[in-house]
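Title: Comparing notes on inverse folding

I've been comparing how different people in this forum approach sequence design from structure. To keep things fair, I'm posting one structure and asking everyone to reply with a full sequence. Here's the target:
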């Protein structure tokens, strides 16, 4: 377990950062007054998300692998972070849905029906629900986390010069 303490630490940092991002979205009006801009601006979350992975793998490289981390080691560390974040995603989504911003689903449902994004209220309610978002958060965490781990490990691996082994 001690071997994976950095991955656990960074997964928890990622979860806390996600919750803080939702608070920021809520207080900036993206879940109410400016809900029309939410679809686009929520994607800015990718910036701190990638930054957390970069900082996590740099931490693992420096403090566990003594600045000598190969691609496989970095990728495995990233995947472990991803698995923990994905496992915590339903809880994270529950906190977002029922504590941080309970008004989001009613607001986005009304907006999506009004703009014709969804044809019926029932269709919108099925899509914008805790259950659907919890599933999407797990799948999204696994997919995006894997891609981010792959790319980050590729860039942060220790490069071996051709003249040495």
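Reply #1:
Here's my take.
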């Amino acid at each position: 377990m001690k071997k994976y303490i950095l991955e656990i630490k960074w997964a928890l940092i990622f979860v806390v950062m996600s919750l803080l991002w939702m608070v920021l979205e809520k207080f900036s009006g993206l879940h109410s007054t400016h809900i029309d801009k939410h679809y686009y601006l929520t994607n800015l979350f990718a910036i701190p998300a990638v930054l957390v992975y970069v900082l996590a793998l740099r931490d693992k490289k420096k403090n566990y692998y003594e600045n000598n981390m190969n691609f496989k080691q970095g990728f495995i560390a990233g995947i472990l972070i991803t698995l923990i974040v994905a496992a915590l995603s339903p809880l994270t989504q529950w906190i977002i849905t029922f504590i941080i911003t309970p008004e989001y689903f009613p607001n986005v449902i009304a907006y999506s029906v009004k703009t014709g994004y969804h044809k019926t209220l029932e269709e919108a309610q099925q899509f914008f629900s805790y259950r659907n978002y919890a599933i999407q958060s797990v799948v999204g965490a696994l997919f995006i986390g894997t891609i981010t781990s792959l790319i980050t490990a590729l860039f942060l691996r220790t490069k071996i010069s051709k003249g040495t082994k």
